[in-house]
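Tokens for chain A. Residues wanted.
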């Protein structure tokens, strides 16, 4: 089974690239982020024509998350995180897919920091942790996948000093991410590439793609039951170099079937 996360940076603007990627790589489950589209204007029929059912949580102009399944319809469990009734941003969706509980997230960026946006990021991460702890307590095979907007380690970026003041690299952001791992989640790409040096994002500015000046912010965290099934992980880097591509590359894992 192949499961991927992909920040498309505007699903309508990137629709040809998304359909192309789905057709070429045929992942079984996909978490999408940054749809930048309301529920009413999402190109759901185009995705269904490519062979995928989905649950969607859109928002006009920014944010937005979805979970897709090849040849199946995910069963929605929850949208949004508890803990802040005034939070209306579309950043979390959870569904049951092929016997796995999948949580798709688009974690707040947090810039500029310090300030209210950074405070919101840290509070959101604490709310996510509470939901993640509940998933672990249920002892179901579970996955949290998406754009975490956290660069966990210095070897997850081409040049640590380049983003030293950014919210993505602040000690508080990293500590919140480590607390998730400490609760029992496994960073799949880190397990596959323990020495780091693997990027999932390249900015459009300053020739970042051409210089391979990237960093890793798209993560797939596995519950213990799924971590035992991990066989491979990687990044579909070549798709980032295509015309009018997202600034993220799809990041994926492979799991052996639980019946094996």
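Reply:
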């Amino acid at each position: 089974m192949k499961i991927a996360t992909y920040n498309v940076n505007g699903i309508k603007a990137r629709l040809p690239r998304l359909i192309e990627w789905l057709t070429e790589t045929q992942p079984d489950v996909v978490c999408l982020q940054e749809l930048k589209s309301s529920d009413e204007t999402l190109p759901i029929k185009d995705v269904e024509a490519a062979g995928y059912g989905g649950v969607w949580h859109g928002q006009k102009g920014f944010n937005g998350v979805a979970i897709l399944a090849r040849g199946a319809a995910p069963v929605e469990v929850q949208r949004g995180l508890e803990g802040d009734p005034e939070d209306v941003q579309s950043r979390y969706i959870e569904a049951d897919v092929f016997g796995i509980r999948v949580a798709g997230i688009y974690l707040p960026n947090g810039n500029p920091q310090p300030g209210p946006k950074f405070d919101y990021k840290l509070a959101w991460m604490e709310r996510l942790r509470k939901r993640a702890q509940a998933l672990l307590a249920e002892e179901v095979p579970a996955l949290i996948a998406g754009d975490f907007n956290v660069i966990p380690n210095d070897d997850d970026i081409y040049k640590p000093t380049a983003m030293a003041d950014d919210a993505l690299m602040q000690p508080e952001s990293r500590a919140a991410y480590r607390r998730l791992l400490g609760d029992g989640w496994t960073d799949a790409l880190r397990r596959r590439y323990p020495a780091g040096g693997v990027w999932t994002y390249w900015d459009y500015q300053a020739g970042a793609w051409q210089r391979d000046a990237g960093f890793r912010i798209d993560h797939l965290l596995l519950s213990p039951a799924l971590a035992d099934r991990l066989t491979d992980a990687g990044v579909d880097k070549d798709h980032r170099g295509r015309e009018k591509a997202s600034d993220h590359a799809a990041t994926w894992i492979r799991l052996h079937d639980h019946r094996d």
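The first strand starts at residue 2 and ends at 7. The radius of gyration is 17 Å.
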